[in-house]
Amino acid sequence: MLDDITKAGAADPDPQRVHDAIVWRAYVAQHDAAALASLFRDAILRLTAPYYDAGQRAAWAAVAEDLDAFDARLARGVTLIAEHAGEPVAFGQLFPRDHVEMLYVAPGWTRRGLASALIARFEALAREAWASTLDTDASALARPVFERAGFSLVAREIVRRGSVSLPRFHLCKPLGAASFSG
Questions:
Q1: Which one of 43, 48, 58, 133 has the largest count of C-beta atoms within 10 Å of its C-beta?
Q2: pLDDT tens-digit profile of 98-108?
Q3: Strand 152-161 with 133-138, pairing
Q4: pTM of this prediction?
């Protein structure tokens, strides 16, 4: 499943494409936790500033402070990582089989299709698991990415992180109909 995402190979004659190659792989418990926690915090603190204040971003990013708990959370379900030159540049999680639990792209790697590629992979996995819908609880930053992928707003929600309230958006995409897109 992971190998069918297009990537440049070692035999690729174009050195720029090899340099820019993204490698997709599954999460390795304990091994990947620290790097993904860093990406998670960096993405939240830097990319969501137009949508969330400093207190909201700090409360949200604090989820990754307990590395053992963060690792346990990443180890459940299916967590996929996009790497460049051995460093993670994006990751996401499908848990359970019909819910995109996490989706984060490193600053400097946005607007390159990584979030859309993760969503497409998770949709394919959900379809394989015979899920009738795929849903997520998206931030204000991620909401447009999911909407471009065919998700629709179900509800606006408020989640609490300690004493801080964060708005989010529950989005859903029906999977029951066959997809004939290329």
A1: 43
A2: 999 999 999 99
A3: unpaired
A4: 0.85
